[in-house]
Amino acid sequence: MKNKQSKYKKFWEWFEENCEVIFNLKNDFEINFNLLSNELKKIDENLTFDFGSTINGKREFIISANGIKKSFSSVENLYKEKFDFENFEIKKFRPRKNSDYVIQMENLTLSVKDCYFKIFKGEGKNDSKIDIVIYIKYRKEELKEEWKEKVKLYNQMILELLEGILGEYDMKTKVGSIKKFYIEEPLVSSLPLNKLAEKFDIVYERINE
Fold first, then answer.
1. Which residues pair with 192 in a beta bridge?
2. CB environment 121-144: b (16+ within 10 A), e (fewer)
3. DSSP codes of every residue in the chain
4. Calculated CA dihedral for residues 173, 178, 184, 185, nearest 10 degrees
5. pLDDT at position 3
6. What is d(CA 83, CA 87) in angstroms, rounded to the nearest whole number?
7. CA-CA distance, 94 to 67, in Å (whole number)?
8. What is the dihedral of CA 27, 28, 29, 32, to 10 degrees?
9. Contacts of 117 (CB under 8 A, 6+ apart)
């Protein structure tokens, strides 16, 4: 009896057949974007993708679980069976971004420059992970009922900022708890959020020696 072809290999065969269309995705963008998304969801409904830089004619194609940890194994398995492509560099999990960027949701904006942090060794079952405390600056006049209603959205934006700084994989596998506080002025002992990645790597390596 013949071995059943894996769903991962089937995806890469489809990708190979449509390589040129995918590389030029901006043509008929919505149609081609949906086709690619649908093929990924045949493997796992949480899988998605991003395009990175194009260097020397090769574009980064990034497979992502959209931050959903239970689907990380699908990313790993798909990556393991990847083909070699002349015009694509295949990568797994959304990488770290430039630490100076802005998140926008609805009519709200949150910048890395608005946030500060402290980090600690995790406790109990998270003793090999890093606990993060985030301090978000706000203007005193914003602390009104209208502003309070926006806190839920701000909290979501903070998580996106953190994933951008730490990358999808580290955010879900190396971070323990995340606490958020809204303050008028940063604490003397806190650090600007754009220093998080560097500090995080040092502390994580130290506690896992």
1. 116
2. bbeeeeeebbbbbbbbeeeeeeee
3. -PPPPPHHHHHHHHHHHTHHHHHTTTTTHHHHHHHHHHHHHTT-TT-EEEEEEEETTEEEEEEE-TT-GGGHHHHHHHHHTPPP-SSEEEEES-----SS-EEEETTEEEEGGGEEEEEEE--GGGTTSEEEEEEEE--GGG-SHHHHTTHHHHHHHHHHHHHHHH-HHHHHHTEEEEEEEEESS--TT-EEGGGHHHHHHHHHHHHT-
4. -50
5. 47
6. 12
7. 9
8. -110
9. 132, 133, 134, 135, 190, 191, 193, 195, 196
Are 160 and 109 in contact, with CB atoms under 8 Å apart? Answer: no
User: What does pTM read for this prediction?
Assistant: 0.87
- Give the integer Cα–Cα distance in Å for 5 and 68: 26
Show the tokens assigned to 205: 């390596």
Alpha carbon 145 to chain centroid distance? Answer: 31
Residue-level pLDDT at 2: 42
Rounded to an integer, the average pLDDT of 148-176 is: 90
- Amino acid sitting at position 48: T
To the nearest 10 degrees (0 to 180), the angle between helices 72-80 and 7-17 is 60
Residue type for position 165 = I
- Between 46 and 20, name the one with better pLDDT: 46
